[in-house]
Amino acid sequence: MRRVVKDRLGHEIYLTDERWRHVCEEHPEMQKYRGQTLETVRRGHRFQDSVRPHVYLYYRDCQGLPRGNTTIVVVVLFGFSIDNTENNFILTAYQIRRRKG
Fold first, then answer.
1. Domain boundaries in the chain?
2. Buried b / exposed e along 41-78 (16+ C-beta atoms within 10 A)
């Protein structure tokens, strides 16, 4: 199944079951946070990766994450399909402990 959300700039970004399985295999702490992952894309802040200009990282602080983590980070690959339509999808997601300051 494919879940599609729009970010604050109106870009459609999707998450496939295959990508979600990858997220959960690499970052088991994310298993209960699919909804918050999509919400991070919808409402979170974003910045462009300094090495890969077609990759953006979205982040949003969330209450109640395990292990003292404070923030969900979602990595999104931006691109285009053969028919020149946007093809933006979630590569991975993980949690971090972000210092506020």
1. 2-96
2. beebebeeeeeeeeebbbbbebeebeeebbbbbbbbbb
* pTM of the model as a whole: 0.94
pLDDT tens across the length of the chain (101 residues): 899 999 999 999 999 999 999 999 999 999 999 999 999 999 999 999 999 999 999 999 999 999 999 999 999 999 999 999 999 999 999 999 988 76
Residue 37 φ then ψ, to 5° = -65, -50
